[in-house]
Amino acid sequence: MLALLAVALVAGGGGSPAPLPEMTVEIAFAVLVPVWLWLSSDPLLRTVPVGARVVAGLVLLVPLAQLIPLPPPIWQALPRREIERDALALIAAENTWRPVALAPARTVAAFLAMVPAAAMMIMVTTLSPAMRWRLVGLVAGFGILTLLIGAAQMSAGTVSPLYFFGADAAILTGFQANRNSTADVLLIAMIAAPAAIRHLARSRREPPGRPAVWLMAGAMAALLALGVVLTGSRTGVMLLVVVLIANGVILRPWLSISAKGLGLAALALLLAGAVLWHNPVIERTIQRFDFAQEARPDLWRDSLYVARRHAPLGVGMGGFFPAYIADERLETIGQTVPNRAHNDFLELAIEAGLPGLLALSLCAAIVLRAAVRQLRESRRSEAHILVIFALFVLAIGILHSLVDYPLRSMSLACLIAACVGLIFPAVTDLADRADLRSIDKTA
Questions:
Q1: Where are the alpha helices (DSSP H) in 126-257?
Q2: Is 67 helix (H, G, I), strand (E, B) or coil?
Q3: Which of 52, 120, 140, 341 could form a disulfide with 193 if both were Cys (CB 3.0 to 4.6 A apart)?
């Protein structure tokens, strides 16, 4: 399972403009998930919590329902279908059965891209506590690897072969296709690092002292935060505040620090700021906070119009681009082509309509209920920190989704789905599994 997550993190960062890497992830899951089920002691997944099954089912049901052929009187009555009807009439095909999806091939592609994330969430729910902590360590380690790859990218400039999906500027992108997704990977690693350090500290017979924990956590946080700044992602930089709060919550047992320690930390920050202040890359990131030419408000306005035009069923998952282009205002047309709504919730409203928003709301309610229950029942165990880690990761994803599209990266979709899986309780021993099997037999 960890190998599958590693494959998704490395190869899944290109999005739909990079079909071959995405196909690599999909094939890896198609091959290795059956092997994992065959080797599993619970191949029928009877120990998977009902809530997790419902969430995975809803995620996959939305695009599948949009592909069901409908009789002519029904699909022709849907909003904005008159153009399609008239076009089909030219070849005497207007009375054929058609699905809700305006571009069925795009919806099929969107469904296939969702399968790895849904499978990842289900697989994580079956992990033992020890394996869950290894997953957190993998996430922290991948953040460092991203930072190293990014340093090599920036040192060679735009001609670096390590820019896997092309580079318009010498910025840190790591394994992702754009700066915002890379910032999210580093932010999540910044939350994973102190969680892993805390777990290692508590698992030792002689836990390290406060200075050692602060040194390890502080060094990791500083390096990864620098990486976030070097991506040039404005939202990523602002979300550092959320990450610092997460670090404080996770490392609360070690938060007590002397006045001398605070002074040394402040001095280190001042020195780092003085050294980096005139760095051209840092200056370029600071300059990006000029929002005078920001195009997102116009994009959101047009996207909201498109969502209303195609309500209540939407245009089909993956169908944002053709639907948006057809209704884009002439005064907003420029040299750049909007590939996304830069708001995942607004784009979901366009593609999935009211059913998609209801499915999202139900999934959120199930996950929130599971989180509250886990936080209450695991207060004195390390599982408590796992849930806190997962909730802060979800907060990063939700907040960034308001102004961008992190979940359209298969890497981030699988990573966030894995964190959703961490929220559900782990089956810790074979006795628990036997009890669940007996319940299934008597049900």
A1: 129-156, 179-203, 210-231, 234-238, 240-250
A2: coil
A3: 140
